[in-house]
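Two proteins, back to back. First:
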Amino acid sequence: MLRSRSCRKFDLKKKTTKSTITRSTNFTCLLQILLIVTLVVASPAKSALSQDELKNFLATEYEKSASAMCTKANEAEWNYETDINNKEKQDILLNVTLESAALAKKYWQDYFKDLNPDDYQDEQLKRQVKNLRILGNAALNEEKLTKLTKATNNMTNIYSTAKICPFSNQKCDLSKESLSLEPEIEEILAKSTNYDESLYQTYVELSNEATVANKFNDKGELWRDSYESPTFIQDIDDLWTQVEPFYAELHKYVGRKLKERFGSKLDISDGLIPANVLGNMWTQEWNNIAELVRPFPQASKVDVDAALKQQKYSVLDMFKTSDEFYKSMGLIPMDVCYNTSAGAMIEKPTDGREVLCHASAWDFCDGHNYRIKMCTNINFEDFIVIHHEMGHIQYFMQYAKQLVIFRDGANPGFHEAIGDTIALSVSTPKHLQKINLVKNYTDSTEAAINALMDTALQKVAFLPFGLLIDKWRWDVFSGRVTQDQWNSHWWEYRKKYQKVKPPVERSENDFDPGAKFHVAGDSQYIAYFVAHILQFQFYKSLCVAAGEYSPDSKEVPLHKCDFYESKAAGDLLSKGLALGSSKHWSDALELMTGSRKLDATPLLEYFNPLYTYLKEQNSKY
């Protein structure tokens, strides 16, 4: 999936948005945060400052320095990620990290370490103090921090530069005929290259050591702290309980359709589908097999890929079209983020540089420099990815006036959900007809079921994968599973939640989790699961605001809503985004939806026609 980059919150426990922002949170945001916390080492001791003095200090001197250092850090990270084999840029990044960590540790020890949020009456100051007192990886000594940084960088580099031969020519010359993961291997279902598991062991040990120094039991607990809920594990388990029956019906239907296609070659007698027949490197989305499982092949269908090519869309045209959607809602124009002359990278370089192609959105913390980094292909999938990444950019811009420590999503899932909420509207046949990317489409019950199936193969099929990655990592970080069980435990979860199995025998000599970017790149993943729930809550709310949907009327189903050009929907969205993380996420959720809880009911409401159809069809077998 995707990740975003920014040091919005500057707290070490939230490595930053894929997007992680974090979506993402790999070594880089560590650098960003370390830089931030190094400010003003000679500041007066905590006891010397009253509540008002601390507020003023954080809003003035700290604010100015933190923003400036964030800009510098993100520039260094950008330079590295767009030229990852450049030794000089790697060294600069590492040296700055170590230097910053030393200063950060001194500042934390002398000033922030013993701050107690409960000592302050001001609620916003409490939230600031809660973040500032956590040092993060800088708690390690220089030798161990260097080792952790190198391990994470090596894993990311191996992931990004690994190449394989095509299946039809497995003895190819890798220097001439190889495929790289993004975008070539993702376009065909191939096999990945694993890196040495010992790197991950180093990463786990040192990450946990740093986390314990910050008064958490392990890194999983630190990551979960971002959601500010003592019952978070139970909360997400409850969400899975809500959606699992629907997933089970989808899985059963897809398995049967694949069996019809492959016959005796495909064994699903144990209720598990081999992972290699679902059309995706990680089996996280099944949209690539839509043609095999779509219920009504003769019904009208949406073929945006053909329209994009026929109308000679360029990569830039795709970005402009996405920007126009946001502007139609009265939101902030975002042309700067895809302006290559201003630094954006929206296509894979052809000058020989190795880059991290994983799509990401960047906030350079100066109020005007925002960029997208993406190796874009001209197809509908990347058209939707663009809307997702620009959702991050819009969020950055909306909360830009918040204090630097509150420039973050209300929780990590919020950042992931915004662009996907927009994409739900963009992908409706109704909208695609409006922007001339779909013609000669006949709306019908059959066409609607097909469209919902296409969406479910992405959104619903993803849910167990989005859940299990961090469940597996939480078990690894906590020591619940030992290193000699890592791979078997991975497949236990994949069988339990996804109901998929490895196509060939696996053992502890393999390290299959490492084939996922977010595992290699130190980026928490549960945000995507949360986002897949949130986006339907947001979507329903915006549809109601736009007058496109009424829960009390069955005349127009939720899945047909398009809030394009709705200023009312844009105003509601803007109000929620502008809060950043200055309030608890439940406050932002209530403002945007009227509810304070994560709830899968809108998702089930959206897919209800398909869910009903699947149950009817599956009951016949």
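And the second protein:
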Amino acid sequence: MAAKVYQPDQELETKVKKATERISENMHIVANEPSLAFYRLQEHVRKALPPMVEKRVEVLALQQQLLGRCYDVEYAVSAIKTMHGAGKSFENTLEFIKNAIFFKQQLKYEEQRRHKKDGNRDSVYKRLSAHIATLDHLPDEISDVVRETANRVESMMNHARYSTEVQKPN
């Protein structure tokens, strides 16, 4: 027997070619089917969306912080501008303080001068209290009453003396 030689069958080859083309076309259709495309889009969105949302939240938080800091800077700048305009007020305050110190010194001088003038006269209270110590035979309540009375008499005399001094210059 003789070896069979393969002879291509034209009809068979065309049928095979048509079948492979149909399979290829079907695979192409299945691969590009709309539901499969939506599935792939959904998969992409599911993977890409959470990091994008996190970045958006982070950017919004940074924006809020930036707005707060901008407000702080604007407030500080306006405060500094206001301070530049407050120089006149500080000068007036300094002048008032100087005047107050001067008037206080004048009052202190007048008070010292008045005490020197009054100090030359013997105080009724001093004279009476010098004798009170020798009144040991009296009860303590009475010596306290005498001291209190002497103190009141002296304050009334000083008041009368001061009121007459004030009326004299007029």
